[in-house]
Design goal:
By secondary structure, the chain is an alpha/beta fold. The protein is built from 18 helices and 18 strands. The structure holds adenosine-5'-diphosphate.
């Protein structure tokens, strides 16, 4: 199969979160299965020189965006059996930030979506499937169906769209988006592009993609409810038959305590001795008291409400009343920067917080901590908890989305489980779960070791999920069977006119 991935980030080129991990890891796995897999992302200025130096110029052309004509270069790089394309325009992507701030995100990402479609005949690649990810590439399926479908080159291309986070939808004024993408007035009705009076890139994808996936089975159910649905739950319910949850994997080589070049000592499930050295090295590096007997709780991730940090805020004094250390690595909201900066001063030698994007330090935290805290309000999949388990660091999570699908709370009766979890979004439930975990660390080393071993031997690879994606790609080409209507049943009242 010929598959084109379109997204705004991919590891190791540019990353702000889990999306990049997925778009970086899944294509090489599919390519190893013998498929022609190519990926296209914007050439953000954040992409390091070590990569840009390896790129070669594929082609360039001009893109019409309303009254604008913009240069579009396509740079190319081959890596891991995959062809990676980078959409080059210094005005849109040569800025010192990746997202936001300019106030013209619709124009930057509108340009990206249009350029991806326009480049295909010019680079001579006619994919069977375009697999678009998150709102930044959400206009691709819509433009394809609305504006390109009548051209023979695009006629047979199918689209699949993956929701990595429904909260970020790319919401803009209709006039602005029309000005850039030229989508006529008749398209702005609620069954098509209009969304609560606005343009919405995510909704456009959900209406016009042939299939929709999200990154865990639980999240695919949750987003059909009002609580998690971010005002798109009605549409998602209407498209229920085309919506699938496929759990993300992690790159098992990049995250491997046996071979990890970033950590102080290597170790594995059957000899975890090296983990103690990693812990000591982490304490030294971050200026924490060097004590092997105190459990370190780690947190790595975006400092946003989504990650349940307000729960931590409510009970930080109670958490720190225990004999523990806390390590935080993340970037994001000022509120949490203030919280953890304050905690670092308040609990000297016991709390360390770093507010940067540091891939190597993240590895050392996964390896050096004993527990990993992820009390998310919602979590489409979450990679950090799987990475933590791979490093023998036991997760404490809230039972939601992908956390619920990957972490099973330790059950004293049956002995099952690989971590600790709580259900209600409640600070004291989280606190008690942390206390419970800490009590096992001190009091029941046999249980602790069992949980650690289970985590380290879990299969978080892409193998299974890549197979599921391939089955979905194949499904796109199956003839749709007409639905059999039974005489005594009401006809389905939900009609989505796409
Ligand atoms: P999300 O996609 O919601 O941000 P995930 O858990 O799916 O969360 O993925 C987060 C990924 O980004 C993980 O690989 C995590 O280690 C990494 N990450 C997040 N923040 C940082 C940071 N400040 N430094 C290094 N890595 C980070």
């Amino acid at each position: 199969m010929k598959i084109l991935f379109a997204a705004s980030e991919a590891f190791p080129f540019v990353k702000t979160g889990g999306l990049a991990d997925v778009v970086g890891a899944l294509p090489p796995v599919l390519a190893r299965e013998g498929h022609d897999v190519r990926v296209v992302i914007p050439l953000f200025s954040a992409i390091p020189k070590e990569w840009t130096e390896q790129m070669s110029h594929e082609t360039d052309f001009e893109v019409q965006l309303g009254w604008r004509r913009q240069y579009c270069g396509v740079e190319r790089l081959n890596k891991d059996g995959v062809t990676w394309y980078f959409i080059d325009n210094k005005y849109y992507f040569g800025r010192p930030y990746i997202y936001g701030m300019g106030g013209d995100e619709y124009e930057r990402l509108g340009f990206f979506c249009r350029s991806v479609l326009n480049m295909l005949p010019l680079i001579g690649f006619q994919p069977d499937v375009i697999h678009a990810h998150d709102w930044q590439s959400g206009m691709i399926p819509a433009l394809l169906k609305i504006q390109y479908r009548h051209l023979p080159f695009y006629e047979k291309i199918k689209t699949i769209f993956t929701i990595h986070n429904l909260q970020y939808q790319g919401i803009f004024g209709i006039r602005e988006v029309q000005d850039v993408l030229g989508l006529g007035d008749s398209l702005w009705t609620e069954d098509k592009l209009e969304c609560y009076g606005c343009a919405n890139f995510m909704k456009a994808a959900l209406v016009y993609s042939d299939l929709i996936t999200t990154v865990s089975p639980s999240y695919s159910e949750e987003i059909q409810t009002a609580y998690y649905g971010e005002r798109l739950d009605g549409l998602l319910r209407a498209r229920k038959a085309d919506l699938f949850g496929v759990l993300n994997g992690i790159d098992m080589e990049d995250y491997n305590p046996r071979t990890d070049p970033y950590i102080a000592a290597d170790y594995g499930p059957d000899d975890v001795g090296g983990k103690a050295l990693c812990k000591q090295a982490l304490q030294e590096e971050l200026g924490l008291e060097i004590r092997p007997d105190v459990p370190i709780i780690g947190m790595v991730g975006r400092l946003s409400n989504q990650k349940g940090l307000d729960l931590v805020d409510y009970v930080i004094a109670d958490i720190m009343r225990q004999d523990i250390q806390l390590v935080v690595l993340g970037m994001g909201e000022g509120r949490y920067f203030n919280l953890f900066s304050w905690a670092e001063g308040e609990y000297k030698g016991r709390v360390a917080a770093r507010f940067t994007m540091d891939h190597a330090l993240a590895h050392r935290i996964y390896a050096g901590c004993d527990l990993f805290l992820m009390p998310s309000q919602f979590e489409p999949c979450g990679l950090s908890q799987m990475i933590a388990m791979r490093y023998g660091t036991i997760p404490i999570v809230r039972e939601t989305g992908g956390l619920r699908d990957t972490v099973l709370s330790y059950n004293e009766e049956t002995g099952e489980g690989n971590g600790f979890s709580f259900f209600n979004y409640n600070a004291h439930d989280m606190l008690h779960t942390i206390e419970r975990a800490v009590s096992y660390y001190h009091g029941q080393r046999d249980v602790w070791k069992k949980l650690q071993h289970r985590g380290m031997t879990g299969d978080y690879s892409w193998k299974h999920s890549a197979g599921e994606y391939l089955r979905l790609y194949e499904k796109l080409f199956e003839e749709k069977k007409p639905v059999e209507e039974k005489a005594d049943e009401e006809p389905n009242p939900v009609v989505v006119d796409i």
